[in-house]
Specification:
- The complex is a heterodimer.
- Chain A has one domain.
- Chain A is an all-alpha fold.
- Chain A is about 90% helix and about 0% strand.
- The radius of gyration of chain A is 13 Å and the shape is globular.
- The longest helix of chain B has 29 residues.
- In chain B, about 50% of the residues are buried.
- Chain B has one domain.
- A two-stranded antiparallel sheet of chain B has the order 1-2.
- Classes of the chains: A mainly alpha, B mainly alpha.
- Chains A and B meet through helix 1 and helix 3 of A and helix 11 of B.
Chain lengths: ~60, ~240
């Protein structure tokens, strides 16, 4: 049984992966590099959710 | 050459070696042999200026060239330098193991590596075609059409099987604890969610680029699969 916290994390990473793959196929040169992937992941699973949480808590 | 395997192997080592490994140097070691060479193999153009190795295969894997970066001795030397410069035997050892994994993995293609450099003999299994000299796109198409992509898939599946290594609990109890010096320093600037994203980034990148390049090669384009030994045979594979 997956705990709710883990499930939420899994969903966020899965959405991030789908978006990354879709844009990666379209823009292989730019997207499919390690540096871009690290930056993208930090934005997608850390900064955006943190920003949304802050907005919603107001 | 291998693609996603170099992103994913460090997680397998992490799983089996636990507190005896520092993850970041292990990952850097896994990338190290290609870090300063691959752009020159494919060629790069900036503001009208273009640079590419005249003999990409020899430059990447041979001698004369930078092929020594794919040898076991290179891992020992760089590991010793890291140990002495940063005063961390753990960092040096982890980087060496990561670099050895890279050098051994690349034995799988048709060019292979000079594992025992200065002996310049190439150890090559020849399971998949080396096509780095054909440029990034053809190389990607060839790699993701031959046994190389199956090798990557093995590491993706092994990583998914070992999913616990990606959890918050594992990160805080093992990865962070094993290398408190690095993660503690980063933690001053980034919260735990950000640290976890950094830790998982190579796994994310390896899995996603495997899927993306596979779609690119077989859905967007129409490159045929050839999973025979040494394939795909539609590409002009390089040999030492």
């Amino acid at each position: 049984m997956i705990r709710s916290g883990r499930l939420q994390t899994l969903v966020i990473y899965a959405i991030a992966a789908v978006v990354y793959i879709a844009t990666g196929v379209a823009y292989t040169d730019f997207m499919l590099s390690l540096v871009v992937a690290i930056g993208y992941l930090l934005i997608a699973v850390w900064l955006i959710p943190a920003g949304l949480r802050r907005l919603l808590s107001r | 050459m291998s693609w996603a395997a170099h992103d994913l192997e460090p997680y397998a080592f992490q799983k089996h070696l636990g507190l005896k490994m520092a993850f970041v140097p292990l990952l850097i070691g896994s990338y190290a042999p290609d870090l300063f060479t691959k752009w020159f193999v494919y060629g790069v153009g900036i503001f009208g200026w273009h640079a590419k190795a005249s003999n990409p295969v020899e430059f990447h894997r041979g001698w004369p060239g930078a092929g020594f970066t794919h040898s076991l001795l290179f891992g020992v030397v760089v590991g010793l330098i890291i140990w002495k410069v940063f005063g961390s035997k753990l960092w040096g050892l982890s980087l060496m193991i990561g670099q050895w994994a890279h050098a051994l993995t690349d034995v799988g293609d048709t060019v292979g590596t000079m594992l025992l450099f200065p002996w310049t003999h190439h150890f090559a299994l020849g399971a998949w075609a080396y096509a780095g000299h054909t440029g990034r796109y053809t190389d990607a198409a060839a790699y993701f059409s031959g046994l190389g992509c199956m090798w990557d898939l093995f590491w993706i599946l092994y990583g998914l099987y070992s999913w616990r290594v990606l959890t918050t609990e594992y990160f805080t109890k093992i990865v962070y604890k094993a290398d408190h010096r690095f993660w503690g320093w980063v933690h001053k600037y980034i919260g735990l969610t950000g640290l976890l994203a950094l830790y998982r980034a190579a796994f994310f990148y390896g899995c996603c680029r495997w899927v993306a390049w596979t779609i690119w090669a077989h859905v967007i384009h129409d490159y045929p699969y050839d999973l025979t030994w040494g394939g795909p045979h539609w590409v002009d594979a390089a040999h030492p």
